[in-house]
Specification:
Blueprint (H helix, E strand, L loop, with lengths): L2 H15 L7 E4 L20 E4 H22 L15 H22 L6 H16 L6 H10 L2 H9 L5 H15 L5 H7 L5 H49 L5 H17 L10 H15 L18 H28 L9 H13 L9 H22 L7 H13 L6 H20 L16 H36 L8
Antiparallel strand pairs: 1-2
Helix pairs in contact: 1-3, 2-9, 4-9, 7-8, 7-9, 9-17, 10-11, 10-17, 11-16, 11-17, 12-13, 12-15, 12-16, 12-17, 13-14, 14-15, 16-17
């Protein structure tokens, strides 16, 4: 978008956002009816502290920057996207009005006799700046060419003498954009070459340049992501440390999370005082198991640990994926154990059955979704598929008794304590845990039996889970080490009520 119009729009927005005198100080109050996270401590009343608008803005900026840096590191698919203002919003209406006024003024100047080029030269200056910003250090020849052709003093002189050819400069710009754009923009560049009129062409050029800016930002993001890891971890750690200094109880739920994990492992006998593992290895075992617990967290009743709070939605999403994979793999295991060897080697059957089940479970986590009804429908559909398949390959028909048995066993998967479901859930979780333990050695663990039909999906989930956990460890390891050292060296089992 042309900066001239953006400046006009910005001035209107600034006027609208300007606070009055009553907003210069804001009272900071605790949320009503929110219990204190410090267990056993009574909340103390305190008078409200006045916080300046500048302090609030600086805090908001810090939180936003930290959230953005975190998103870039843990989300490998993160990309910059063009900003799209909501349809009908005031900001969009102002922007459209300002831009229309600018382009109408440009068109009027170019239709004058003699032509005037005030707006056109401003556009060419912005285009020149944008093209130069796309260049890499090795693009010396292109830089020289752009600076020679889009020489602003020369262009100004040509305009004053009536010798400026906007059309020729526009074609040069389109050609240069074609040299610098990503392959995905080739079609857009081709369309620019077909625009005959100057003003529509310049408008289209700016639209494509905006897309190229996004492409360049994503390219830069991909290039520097490996180098951002340590800096981003240190940045988040320092931000959290500053928060912790102001709020000493900011690790209460994290301590509780690790305490309960230690207690669970001690009850299993794998985290007792007599363990042969050295303290450092024992701490890693406790910590990895604690992360695995986050996938089955009761978000409605149990506060999430502070150090993973920024990723709570991610853990919920991964839990939903895990749950769907458990049901899917359970159904396929039931099918193959019930039907027998007759279908074990039939090409394409597994993918067909998997597609049927996946389609029926696609909305599994919507509030209105009924797993029981879906499994009943899945049982009916799979019986039809299996009957057709057996007939096509010359096997005995799928008897009514076998159909009834298959439908019953598939419907039984709805129960959380169903044997097949518990088995597949255990195998998925063990694979995720093994992936987490082996991620430091870059050696993926073998896929447990029964998970082959969903192997691709389980491995992808394990990669995302491990990446998220490893970054969280990198950020918060100093805080975790202190807590775990206290828990494991003291040898005191936490009480059941903590």
């Amino acid at each position: 978008m042309p900066k001239e119009a953006d400046r006009l729009e910005g001035a209107a927005d600034e006027e609208e956002r300007r606070p009055d005198a009553s907003e210069v100080a804001v009272s900071k109050r605790g949320r009503a009816n929110t219990p204190s996270p410090r267990r056993g401590d009574a909340p103390h009343a305190s008078s409200p502290r006045l916080v300046s608008v500048e302090e609030l803005m600086e805090t908001a900026k810090g939180v936003t920057n930290m959230a953005l840096a975190h998103e870039i590191m843990v989300n490998q698919d993160f990309q910059v996207k063009p900003a799209v203002l909501p349809e009908g919003s005031l900001e969009r209406q102002v922007k459209e009005i300002m831009h229309k006024a600018f382009w109408d003024c440009l068109e009027a100047q170019l239709m004058e006799e003699p032509q005037t080029y005030g707006h056109a030269i401003k556009l060419l200056a912005e285009i020149r700046e944008t093209l130069l910003s796309f260049l890499l250090p090795g693009h010396g020849r292109l830089r020289t060419r752009i600076e020679e052709v889009l020489d602003l003093p020369l262009i100004q002189q040509q305009a004053e003498n009536g010798a400026l050819d906007i059309g020729e400069l526009s074609q040069f710009i389109v050609g240069m954009m074609g040299s610098l754009c990503a392959p995905c923009r080739d079609e857009d560049i081709g369309k620019l070459k077909e625009v005959p009129d100057i003003v529509p062409l310049l408008k289209a050029i700016f639209s494509v340049l905006d897309l190229m800016k996004v492409d360049m930002a994503n390219f830069a993001l991909t290039s520097i992501r490996p180098h951002l890891m340590q800096q981003s971890a240190e940045y988040e750690r320092s931000k959290f440390q500053g928060f912790l200094e102001k709020h000493p109880n900011a690790l209460d739920y994290t301590e509780k999370w690790l305490e309960e994990t230690v207690r669970c492992l001690r009850e299993e006998g794998s985290c007792g005082a007599a363990s042969s593992d050295p303290p450092s290895l024992l701490a890693v075992k406790v910590h990895n198991r604690a992360y695995l617990r986050l996938l089955t967290w009761d978000h409605a009743s149990d506060p999430f640990p502070e150090t993973v709070l920024m990723d709570q939605a991610r853990f919920q999403e991964m839990h939903r994926e895990e749950e769907q994979l458990v049901v899917l793999s359970s159904v396929l295991l039931v099918v193959y154990t019930t039907t027998g060897e007759a279908i074990s080697g039939l090409p394409g059957l597994m993918e067909t059955l998997k597609g049927v089940v996946n389609a029926m479970l696609a909305d599994m986590h919507l509030p209105s979704f009924s797993v029981q009804e879906a499994l009943a429908t899945i049982g009916e559909k799979l019986c039809v598929e299996l009957s057709q398949c057996l007939s096509q390959h010359g096997y005995s028909p799928f008897s009514a008794d076998r159909k009834g048995t298959l439908r019953g066993q598939i419907s039984a998967i709805v129960q959380p304590d169903n044997t097949v479901r518990k088995l597949m859930e255990s195998r998925v979780q063990n694979f995720l845990l093994a992936s987490l333990e082996s991620s430091q050695h870059k050696t993926p663990p073998p896929l447990p039996g029964g998970l082959a039909p969903v192997g691709k999906e389980v491995k992808e989930l394990a990669v995302r889970f491990s990446r998220l956990i490893n970054f969280n460890k990198l950020v918060f390891s100093p805080f975790y080490q202190k807590i775990l050292q206290k828990l494991l060296t003291a040898g005191v089992s936490p009480s059941a009520g903590t």
